């Protein structure tokens, strides 16, 4: 069930009404309703994969309880290993089996040994990378005694499967979301309004920006061999907006929907176009995943505590794993590696000569350079293979720029302009520009007209319903 | 909560009014689907022959050249399941209907409108021809089945409606008898190229059983209502004829010949009929005005003589 579908437009008000009809002190009943609704939401895609969520949730619930009863390190490690084997085993099988088998065959072929293992046609269960990491964070926190094990099964299962963020995040932490399932929720008007505003914002990003960038981007990336350099550049820039609109739009909707149920989900995107360096970009882009890797991989590996070399190695490791998390393909590994190199290079420059010299003193210069680097790396994310990405890049840099680019629809340009202006007011709320832009919206009729315009453009602006890009991860 | 529900309800009511208003506004512009529906209902008490099928009859059969009162309800890429739907839907409203005419190409017995790039046309049937009753339960919750604005480029549709209101221009391509006058002479692409391309496109249509079942169901309904059925293989230019799958063509011929064994069914094979010359074709598999006149007279005579 997609957020931008008619079935969800019926599903959400129904669950919302039932949820708030339950008296607020019946917390378990509300959680049970969320659990049933979440399983129904997931089953709408493919009910067969519900078993995987159940298995993952049951394993981590049981491991959590077992960890609470074990004081000695050895059995605790065993329980943690069990959770890791179950969760990463499922993820590995469904997402990476064929990739690893193919890589193995290629590697053996290189040394003259021919292997012919069975290749399975495996369907990737939607959202598996997201809920696996979410439930793993619980076990890791319990193991490290940062969190008490949850005894209430309904609350725990609802936490793992909470439908607004089940299939594409944000990847919530048990420390943040689980306690919210344990306390009474109260509905306030401000909360509801904020929820709807976030949903509308998400719809605008998804339907008006992302879905309208998609045809241009698809055309450029399918015909990059004949496209001119300006068209290739525009294709890359628009892909940046497409993926941002798609993914951050989903996150906004997820946060807005959760808000309607009295829940608060973490911020997943914080205006990444304003990042002034590659490291900051990852503090603003897919924050829930970046922080997950920071807390559960980078810091346990030693973080930045053991000298430069270890820091750089740890940074490269998390970016390589992040690439692999996005997809079972060499191109994602390379994409992760490039981002890793960007961050390492930036860290090295910062540590040796500092960033307050020369043009680095100017925030706009930093924003521009970070944006260009990020756009160039998107080529690897969007291309179907490393060869095609390299060819795209080489055409972009070697062919003439003195030709006209394929025109971008005017309405899309306006929509992107509006998005950037809106994000500017969010980034610098106290600037004169932001105050001027916000001033008319103090009047209710102007606000309502804006809401109606956003609602109408979200309903009519994108044509047929498009899948969210991050569902494939 | 009350304030939230009231304000949200008010907002949704306002937004729905806007969207429904917009939908009604753009739907006033006639298109081939809505226009044919309206015209057939206007002529329903006189219509004796109903022409169905795809572009081969849309461009190739001009009711003006029929000796009977005929109406052309063929539409581009219309597959047999939609022919069946239209026949069964309009049959009760056509008291004088005596015969239906249906072209069958070598690909028709496997073709479905839902295949490939023409699939968008399905929503035209849903929006303008009442096809929503035929939708599967899984399609009931698809917004595109309710809103033409949602299904199409809304900006373009508003522009089109404004032009229609201002200047009366519409995307209509058919006349009051349902015939499309678009193919006047010959395509600049030439008969050889277009014929080979069309044959290759049609060869890609998979074999499936449902279109045969739809055709058989139509014949059964026609028999019960004492309505004659004229099936014909439309004329094609040699570039198309040479490129088609001969085995599949032969199979189609044999199947239609078997059907013609029934008393109320007639079949004529005009695929390589030498009455049609280069001057009669628009492209490799469609007739132009001149060819349409010729084909219409042949079919009309056949109805007079045999049915």
- How helical, in percent, are the residues of chain A? 55-70%
Low-confidence stretches of chain A: none
Structural class of chain B: alpha/beta
- H/E topology pattern of chain A: HHHHHHHHHHHHHHHHHH
Question: What's the main sheet of chain A like?
Answer: none
Based on CA atoms alone, the radius of gyration of chain A comes out at 23 Å
Q: What is the arithmetic mean of pLDDT of chain A?
A: 89
Shape descriptor of chain A reads globular
Q: What is the total tally of β strands of chain B? A: 7
Strand order of the largest sheet of chain B: 2-1-3-4-5
- The helix count of chain B comes to 12
Structural Rg of chain B: 21 Å
Distance N to C terminus of chain B:
71 Å
CATH topology of chain B: Rossmann fold
Strand content of chain A: under 5%
Strand content of chain B: 5-15%
CATH architecture classification name of chain B = 3-Layer(aba) Sandwich
Global mean pLDDT of chain B:
91
């Amino acid at each position: 069930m997609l957020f931008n579908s008619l079935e969800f437009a019926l599903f959400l008000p129904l669950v919302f009404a039932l949820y708030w009809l339950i008296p607020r002190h019946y917390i378990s009943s509300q959680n049970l309703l969320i659990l049933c609704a979440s399983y129904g939401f997931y089953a709408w895609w493919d009910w067969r994969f519900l078993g995987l969520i159940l298995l993952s949730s049951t394993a981590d619930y049981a491991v959590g309880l077992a960890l609470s009863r074990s004081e000695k390190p050895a059995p605790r490690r065993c329980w943690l290993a069990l959770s890791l084997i179950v969760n990463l085993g499922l993820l590995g099988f469904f997402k990476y089996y064929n990739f690893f088998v193919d890589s193995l065959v290629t590697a053996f072929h290189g040394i003259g040994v021919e292997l012919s293992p069975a290749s399975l046609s495996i369907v990737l269960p939607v959202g598996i990378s997201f809920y696996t990491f979410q439930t793993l964070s619980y076990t890791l926190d319990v193991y490290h005694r940062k969190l008490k094990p949850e005894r209430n099964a309904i609350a725990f299962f609802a936490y793992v499967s909470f439908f607004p963020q089940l299939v594409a995040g944000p990847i919530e932490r048990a420390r943040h979301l689980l306690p919210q399932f344990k306390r009474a929720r109260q509905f306030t008007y401000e909360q509801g309004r904020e929820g709807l505003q976030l949903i509308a914002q998400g719809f605008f990003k998804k339907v008006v920006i992302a879905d309208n960038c998609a045809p241009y981007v698809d055309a450029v990336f399918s015909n990059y061999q004949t496209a001119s350099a300006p068209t290739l550049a525009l294709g890359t820039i628009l892909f940046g907006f497409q993926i941002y609109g798609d993914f951050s739009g989903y996150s906004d909707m997820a946060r807005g929907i959760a808000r309607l149920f009295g829940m608060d989900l973490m911020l997943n995107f914080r205006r990444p176009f304003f990042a002034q360096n590659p490291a900051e970009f990852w503090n603003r882009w897919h924050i829930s995943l970046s922080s997950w890797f920071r807390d559960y991989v980078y810091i346990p590996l030693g973080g930045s505590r053991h000298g430069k070399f270890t820091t750089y190695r740890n940074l490269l490791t998390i970016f390589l794993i992040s690439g692999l998390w996005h997809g079972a393909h060499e191109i994602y590994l390379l994409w992760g590696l490039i981002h890793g190199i960007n961050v390492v290079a930036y860290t090295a420059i910062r540590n040796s000569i500092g960033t307050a010299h020369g043009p680095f003193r100017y925030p706009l210069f930093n924003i521009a350079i970070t944006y260009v680097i990020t756009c160039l790396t998107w080529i690897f994310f969007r291309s179907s293979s490393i060869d095609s990405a390299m060819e795209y890049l080489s055409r972009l840099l070697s062919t003439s720029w003195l030709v006209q680019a394929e025109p971008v629809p005017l309405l899309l340009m306006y929509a992107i302009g509006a998005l950037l202006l809106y994000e500017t007011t969010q980034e610098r709320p106290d600037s004169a520009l932001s105050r001027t832009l916000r001033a008319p919206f103090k009047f209710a009729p102007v606000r309502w007209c804006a809401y109606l315009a956003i609602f109408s453009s979200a309903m009519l602006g994108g044509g047929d319903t498009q899948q969210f890009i991050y569902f494939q991860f | 909560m009350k304030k939230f529900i009231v304000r949200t309800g008010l907002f949704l009511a306002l937004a729905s009014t806007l969207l429904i208003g917009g939908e009604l506004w753009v739907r006033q512009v006639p298109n081939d689907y809505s226009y044919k529906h309206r015209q057939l209902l206007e002529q329903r008490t006189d219509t004796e022959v109903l022409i169905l099928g795809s572009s081969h009859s849309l461009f190739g059969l001009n009711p003006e050249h029929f000796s009977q009162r005929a109406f052309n309800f063929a539409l581009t890429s219309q597959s047999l399941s939609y022919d069946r739907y239209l026949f069964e839907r309009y049959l009760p409203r056509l008291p004088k209907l005596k015969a239906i005419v249906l072209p069958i190409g070598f690909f028709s017995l496997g073709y479905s409108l839902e295949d490939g790039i023409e699939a968008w046309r399905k929503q035209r049937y849903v929006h303008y021809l009442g096809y929503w009753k035929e939708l599967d339960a899984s399609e009931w919750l698809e917004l595109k089945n309710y809103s033409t604005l949602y299904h199409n480029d809304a900006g373009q549709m508003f522009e089109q409606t404004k032009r229609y209101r201002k200047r009366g221009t519409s995307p209509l391509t058919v006349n009051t008898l349902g015939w499309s006058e678009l193919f006047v002479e010959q395509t600049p692409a030439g008969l050889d190229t277009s014929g080979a391309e069309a044959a290759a496109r049609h060869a890609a249509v998979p074999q499936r059983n449902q279109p045969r079942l739809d055709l058989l169901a139509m014949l059964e309904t026609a028999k019960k209502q004492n309505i004659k059925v004229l099936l014909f293989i439309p004329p094609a230019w040699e570039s198309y004829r040479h490129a088609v799958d001969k085995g599949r063509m032969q199979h189609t011929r044999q199947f239609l010949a078997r059907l013609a064994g029934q008393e109320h069914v007639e079949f004529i094979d005009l695929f390589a009929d030498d009455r049609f010359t280069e001057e009669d074709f628009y492209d490799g598999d469609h007739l132009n005005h001149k060819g349409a006149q010729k084909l219409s007279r042949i079919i009309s005579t056949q109805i007079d003589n045999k049915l």
